[in-house]
Amino acid sequence: MVNFDRIDNKRPRCRAAAIIQSGGELKRSVFTGCVLIIFALAALMPAAGMAESQGVAAPSLINALDTIGPLRFCDESVPLADAEVRERMEKELLLSLGDPPQVVLWLKRSKRYLPIIATMLRDHGLPDDLKYIAVAESALRPHVGSPKGAIGFWQFMPQTGRNHGLTINEHIDERRNIYASTRAAIRYFSALYAEFKKWSLVAAAFNMGEEGLKAEIIAQSTADYYRLYLPLETQRFLFRILAVKLILGDPGAYGYHLKEDKYYPPLKFDQVSIDCFRETPILLVAQAAQSDFKRIKTLNPELRGHYLAPGKHRLRVPPGAGKGINKRFRELAKKFAKLRKERIYIVQPGDNLSTIAAKFNVPLAVLIIWNRLDLTSPIHPGDRLVIYPHRLP
Q: Who contacts 361 (Cβ-Cβ below 8 Å, separation ≥6)?
């Protein structure tokens, strides 16, 4: 794109600039106008195509604000009569509506994950509105992370996740598992409500931590979320959740009319128990499930890396793959163990990983994956590495 503000009049930087410079002010105006019209049309065409294909008709943002009527969070009234509270609510709704692709993705993912969360909340006697926290936190993405180290559907920090029953180690990170992480969130919500007695404060504590919130309540001498001066993210947090609730509760009111077949389908799988007597490649599970590595990782986003740790694992596999999987897995594991024993290479003096990879004509990265190597720990003569037969599919 030509940036007309940066063209040097003495030395044109492109052919278009030279034409403008030589043609005078009239030609400059006509040419500039044509280019801007072309660029504007080009920018509008993809957006229009997306709107048509997704059933989105952008509403008037002014009219959208009229949808903010009496509003409740977990059956607690939101004091919209307070002008400052209404302003905060309007701001978050407008910001959410200002990102249509994100709203479409919220909607499309909603029927995959929100029914799971809603059922678990109901089974534990917790308010349905809490499900919108997961949308506000992660947009229902299992792998999303924050710069501070929060990960997963509910954006748990590592220690908070462990405190509420999640396994988080080099092999497993259950913050990415919709079922395990929601169980942890339910435990956390229950503990927070027992302490703060208000769901608005539960949401605030979930965002900023209970100790920090308690300190502010004491220092400011109020337990009213709407009157507390908190970190800016926490001041916005409940209103962001409420914006999600408004949009997902009635998407048509905001111009989003998705047909049923446009939503992402619910999760479907068989659940199986796999017993690993030693560290085992996930690829073996995929082969036993008559599937592929990516599908197994997608169904089990908590799995990290390429290997399962020794022990028993409860895994999800494609529908229908559970029948006979353990027999197939045992046969594959037996063949793998024999192959591993036959393909041992003893590190020689002068060897390094690059020379070994070149010797066997394999990528250095796959040598690291096969042997679970840490690049910060050097290899030594006498170390044993596994080099499998290989070929590109």
A: none
